[in-house]
Structure to design on (538 residues):
């Protein structure tokens, strides 16, 4: 769908690494260029026309994000520099002061590093305990397995909405219901879900939700931290500085602004935020339901074809998203990626930043295909054709 | 060495890597070498006797280029004195960087000359970096 909108798709490459980042449509590129060309000024400095326009565009973007994820209030949307930054802000700005000796933080072994290491750090500093939900045979989370490890000491459940290697969609709504019955906070890493399915944070009822713009057709270097207002109110700003203070004097009396400015110190990534707004407009025009349905059909087509090749071992057969992780029997994953690169096909090999997942899958490295709406059935045919001849792969690896 | 001959040497060493085995012998210096930018991860074991490299063994998970380069490097270095080994390593790096080098120092390692794409040079150099680490720790 909509391939003509993407300059990168005119370069005769097959891009199957959308879990890492997505291509940008011309409308996003134009929106960013338009800012730099026609109204380049700082935000929150509305003494002259172009600066006033920046303020308007920046805050319009916040409204667009609010609507896109159906947040209740615009103050619940904080612009960050990406999902990793958002997750770290939650861990150090909110939980570091609330986690005590013996408290438990629940994650899984299939999380991305960005939803593991911030919790590891808190656990070490505050003498808290990391616990892992046992994954089922498909490496998926089940409510039963979550319930088993919840104790009165459990304070946080931090999970990816969709994991970046297994590609399973977690039952976040049910997890939040169970967590809240037990006074547990739920942090959702939405980096892999935001671009691929409709998101409604009020329906999910999660406490925090994080994502990056660049994985949803937007620019790099900008992301979002969503949090329920009362939680963000209690959050310690990661940075102190301009734009977030109301007043201060030489007696070190500092009055901070209210949300959302309080958590956005310094000149923000204005161009990035404007680009993110354009990306949201673009995706909404296609419709998130359509994107999800198309991707799942494309995935089924791919998995059906790959399953028929005897030397292909698919790790995540039963996930209902565009992520397919597999190996070619006896060939190192990186060699497969290099081989496909000869045919201008971009796939990722390795552990994909989920470095404790191999405890679960017993497979250290995989080749990962991550689809998006601009991928086609013809591209899948070409990929499958290249993977079907193992001897050809080995011959052309060097 | 023409490109086809080079490719064949690389392929052969990948299919039948030399000394790809782990040995349980405390006299061997152990060193791990891995690439930050990719997923190659190789353990090397080096035996130095009378100031000479008497043996090298390796194991691990890595791409074809890294495996093959390790196999070839081991054959190039066994029997060399430490200073000769350092000379081989220096010249191998120079060759990859397209600088002047002494090709008489190599037997098979010249197969990696003009290695493409550029990103794979880090795979070829990986075992040499590991040996350097081991030789440095030996000299201490």
């Amino acid at each position: 769908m909509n391939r003509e909108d993407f300059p990168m798709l005119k370069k005769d490459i097959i891009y199957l690494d959308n879990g890492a980042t997505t291509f940008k449509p011309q409308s996003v590129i134009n929106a960013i260029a338009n800012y730099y060309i026609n109204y380049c000024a700082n935000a929150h400095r509305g003494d002259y026309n172009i600066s006033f326009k920046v303020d308007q565009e920046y805050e319009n973007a916040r409204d667009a994000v609010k609507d896109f994820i159906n947040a209740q209030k615009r103050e619940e949307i904080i612009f960050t520099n990406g999902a990793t930054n958002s997750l770290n802000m939650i861990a150090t700005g909110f939980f570091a002061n609330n986690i005590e000796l013996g408290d438990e933080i629940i994650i899984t072994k299939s999380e991305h590093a960005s939803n593991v290491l911030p919790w590891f750090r808190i656990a070490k500093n505050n003498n808290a305990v990391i616990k892992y939900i046992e994954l089922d045979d498909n490496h998926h989370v089940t409510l039963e397995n979550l319930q088993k490890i919840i104790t009165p000491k459990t304070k946080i459940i931090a999970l990816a909405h969709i994991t970046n290697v297994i590609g399973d969609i977690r039952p976040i709504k049910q997890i939040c219901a169970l967590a809240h019955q037990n006074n547990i906070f739920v942090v959702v890493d939405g980096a892999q879900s935001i671009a691929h399915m409709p998101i409604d944070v009020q329906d999910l009822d999660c406490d925090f939700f994080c994502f990056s713009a660049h994985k949803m057709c937007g620019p790099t270097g900008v992301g979002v931290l969503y949090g329920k207002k009362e939680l963000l109110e209690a959050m310690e700003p990661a940075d102190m500085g301009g734009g977030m203070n109301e007043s201060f004097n030489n007696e070190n009396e500092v009055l901070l602004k209210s949300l959302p400015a309080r958590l956005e110190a310094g000149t923000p990534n204005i161009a990035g935020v404007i680009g993110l707004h354009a990306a949201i407009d673009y995706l909404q025009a296609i419709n998130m339901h359509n994107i999800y349905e198309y991707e799942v059909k494309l995935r089924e087509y791919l998995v059906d074809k790959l399953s028929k090749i005897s030397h292909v071992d698919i790790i995540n057969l039963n996930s209902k998203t565009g992520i397919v992780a597999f190996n070619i029997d006896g060939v190192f994953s990186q060699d497969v990626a290099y081989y496909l690169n000869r045919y201008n096909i971009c796939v990722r090999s390795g552990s994909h930043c989920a470095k404790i997942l191999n405890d679960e899958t017993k497979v250290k490295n995989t080749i990962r295909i991550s689809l998006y709406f601009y991928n086609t059935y013809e591209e899948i045919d070409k990929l499958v054709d290249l993977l079907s001849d193992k001897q050809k792969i080995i011959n052309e690896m060097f | 060495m023409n490109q086809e001959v080079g490719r064949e040497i690389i392929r052969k060493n990948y299919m039948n890597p030399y000394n790809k085995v782990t040995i349980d012998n405390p006299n061997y210096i152990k060193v791990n070498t891995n690439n930050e930018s990719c997923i190659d991860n190789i353990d090397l074991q080096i035996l130095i006797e009378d100031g000479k490299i008497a043996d090298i063994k390796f194991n691990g998970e890595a791409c074809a280029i890294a495996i093959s380069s390790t196999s070839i490097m081991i054959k190039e270095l066994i029997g060399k004195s430490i200073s000769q080994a350092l000379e081989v390593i220096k010249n191998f790096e120079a060759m990859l960087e397209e600088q002047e080098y002494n090709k008489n120092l190599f037997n098979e390692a010249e197969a990696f000359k003009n290695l493409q794409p550029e990103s794979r040079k880090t795979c070829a150099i990986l075992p040499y970096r590991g040996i350097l680490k081991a030789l440095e720790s030996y000299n201490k």
About this structure: Residues 9 and 111 of chain B are 7 Å apart (CA to CA). Chain B has one domain: 3-139. Residues 121-139 of chain B form the longest helix (19 residues). Chain B is about 45% helix and 20% strand.
